[in-house]
Amino acid sequence: MAFLPDLGPEGLSERFCAQMRPVFGRAPEVPISAPRAVCSDGDALFVADMAEHNVWRCLPNQAPHIVAGTGQRGPGPDEPQGAPGTDVALEYPHDLALAPGVLYICELYAVRALDITSEPPMLRTVFQSEYGLGGVAVAREGLVVALHSRHMLALVDNEGREQILAGTGHPGPLLSDAPALQGNLHNPTKVAVLPSQDILFIDAGNRALRLLQRASGTLVTLSGAIDAPDGLALGGGGCFVAEGRNCQVLQFRPSSPGREWNWGTCAGTGFCDASCVGDSVWQGLGESMQRRRPALETQLRRPQGLCWVPGRGLLICDAGLGVVYLAEGLDAWAWHRDVALPRALVLSGRAKLSDQAEEVLKLLVELPDEEFRLVLSWWHEVDWALEEERRGLKEELEQRQQRIQEEKNGLGYDQERVDIILRRELDDEVLALNVGGEFFFAKRSTLCTYEGSYLANLFSGRWESSIERDSYGRFFLDFDPSCFRQLLNFLRSKRLESQRGGPARLPKVPEEKVDQFWNLVEYFGLTEQFQEAEEAQSSAPKVSESTASLFSSNLLQSALGALRQARDRRREEGGQWSAGRKKT
Fold first, then answer.
1. DSSP codes, 350-366
2. DSSP string covering 189-221, please?
3. Helix (H) or strand (E) run with residue 499 in it
């Protein structure tokens, strides 16, 4: 598919006129750090600051204020029920869902309900889990919760009872049109409920946008090529997904039945330079501000939480800049960054592509919407036919490349050896980490000791750009450094296990740090591996104290005997031993 740039004020900008402006962000009176989730009923705006463990509320003509959280990380859901929200310490709030009179807050291991009709707003726990949670959405029957580290979707009713809707409890590859309870999910995060009660969700581990059809109980893949998705919202005839690592927001729209949805960039430039600084002042969603910019020319650093506000536009949380933006004017045809011309047009007009494209696009701008849709539909069909031809050429090219590869192998070219050397260089790379303010240095291979774990995937080299860094470029992890040190030392011992001739010993964690340590183990997906290590350690033969003492005594006696023999030989050779000792 060929994409042509906008034509400026005379052309597509009048049709694709989406604008963005900041509506909430850092200020002296608003010490927000990293807004991770946002929701709004059209007037009030709620923003979850995950790093500061609190939730803000913004009302028109009022100063923003905190309605939940103390600014300190809480111990989890074991908090008093029915307490004022500002008296309860939250634990990494990262998703919000709004129902009439109630704001649902998704934390690391719990979902809380904040009564926003009372003053002060009162907070209670409605669901808690031993597994990490990814997101929450309001459904007709209760709440839909993404069990992130359990790889499932669950429905929680008003009594707190849990019903599994999708997933087997084990991560697995992407498989479309599978029965929901037999299809594998991989770290689901954000969820949204359609008017039909079908469930749209992000399958983050599989980099996919998926749909759970409640009537048929089937999982359908709508898109399987989203890079590091985080943030989901329904609206505008489709849905929006934030690609934090790519600094942009995508809009998806339904395609023909049986095919993946169409998509395009609706906000962000796809990159963010160091000079990009967020700015905003809360004046209300309906207020007019002068700092409007074209949505596709606005740099985003790490877009995450999204919320569609009917009649207003799309709210975008930029956790990197500490700003919440409002994108306005996302109409039915502003969902794609540029008009897509078929390859036939591009190939036939290479010499005068720019001139021909401008003439064609100017004619399109003047077409009525219905005719405009018909033309785009025809282009889509032509491009699909060319895509089939391209696929055939690609297969032929791959066959030729395979023959060339076989010839190289016949001449002694060993690709496997090259891969091993390259992998060894990657494994030996030393990484610098800032964990809770303390600095650590570790080989990549140590952090990736357990393949398939979340820790290994995080530092495999593929997803590192999504990890937050400090001002010196070190990877920043907001965990207890003493617990991380115990975990890192265990991984180092595990790497040397074969040389030591015995299983790696579990770290001795201080009693007051046990809960934090095991929470860290579970977060990095190492619980099963630690349990196996514990079983191996308990089954290993133990050396009694008497045996150890006897061994030490025998070793000492042998050493003293050897020393006496050496001294006697020196004396026989002329007393040099004694003379030497006297001189010193």
1. STTHHHHHHHHHHHHHT
2. EEEEE-TTS-EEEEEGGGTEEEEEETTTTEEEE
3. helix 497-500
| CA-to-CA dists, residue 354 to 2, 15, 350, 537, angstroms | 12, 19, 9, 70
d(CA 552, CA 479): 41
8 Å CB contact between 103 and 96: yes
Residue 552, helix vs strand vs coil:
helix
Q: Single out the residue of 198, 242, 236 nearest to residue 217, CA to CA.
A: 198
User: For residues 53 and 34, what is the distance between their CA atoms, to the nearest angstrom?
Assistant: 10
DSSP for 443-473, please give it. Answer: EHHHHTSSTTSHHHHHTSSSSGGGS-B-TTS
Phi and psi at residue 444, in whole multiples of 5°? -60, -40
* CA–CA dist 152, 523 (Å, integer): 16
Query: 3-class SS at 419?
Result: helix
Give the pLDDT confidence score for residue 7 in this predicted structure. 33
Residues in the chain: 584
Q: For 283, list phi and psi in degrees, rounded to 5.
A: -125, 0
What is d(CA 166, CA 154) in angstroms, rounded to the nearest whole number? 7
Q: Which two tokens stand for residue 114?
A: 């904040």
CA distance 516 to 524: 13
Q: What is the pLDDT of residue 3?
A: 32
DSSP 229-259: EEEEEEETTEEEEEETTTTEEEEEE--STTS
The rounded distance, in Å, linking the Cα atoms of 410 and 554 is 60
Strand-by-strand arrangement of the 102-106 sheet: 83-84, 122-128, 110-115, 102-106, 95-99
Alpha-carbon span 233 to 273, nearest angstrom? 26
Long-range contacts of 534-542 (CB under 8 A, 24+ apart): 534/506, 536/503, 537/503, 537/504, 537/505, 537/506, 540/502, 540/503
**Verdict on whether the full-model pTM lies above 0.70:** no
First to last CA, the chain: 87
Angle 506-536-433 (CA atoms, 0-180°, nearest 5)? 35
What would you measure as the largest C-alpha separation in the chain, in angstroms?
A: 115
Orientation of helix 415-427 relative to helix 369-410, angle to 10°: 110
pLDDT for the residue 147 = 96
Q: Which residues, at least 6 apart from 280, have a Cβ–Cβ distance to it below 8 Å?
A: 22, 23, 24, 25, 26, 27, 323, 324, 325
Strand 438-443 versus strand 430-435 pairing type? antiparallel
From 503, 508, 506, 494, select the one nearest 540 (Cα to Cα). Answer: 503
Q: What pLDDT does 447 receive?
A: 86
Cα–Cα distance, 497 to 502 (Å, whole number): 6
Question: How high is the mean pLDDT in each 10-residue block of the chain (584 residues)?
Answer: 34 58 80 90 90 91 90 73 89 95 95 94 92 95 95 93 94 87 93 95 93 93 85 89 90 77 81 65 52 83 93 91 88 42 40 51 59 62 70 84 78 54 61 90 86 84 79 88 90 74 78 89 88 76 49 55 68 51 40
For tokens 């619980």, name the residue.
527
* Distance from C-alpha of 516 to C-alpha of 505, rounded to nearest angstrom: 19
Instruction: Tell me the C-alpha distance between 242 and 250, whole Å.
Output: 6
SS3 383: helix
The C-alpha atoms of residue 318 and residue 21 are separated, in whole angstroms, by 12
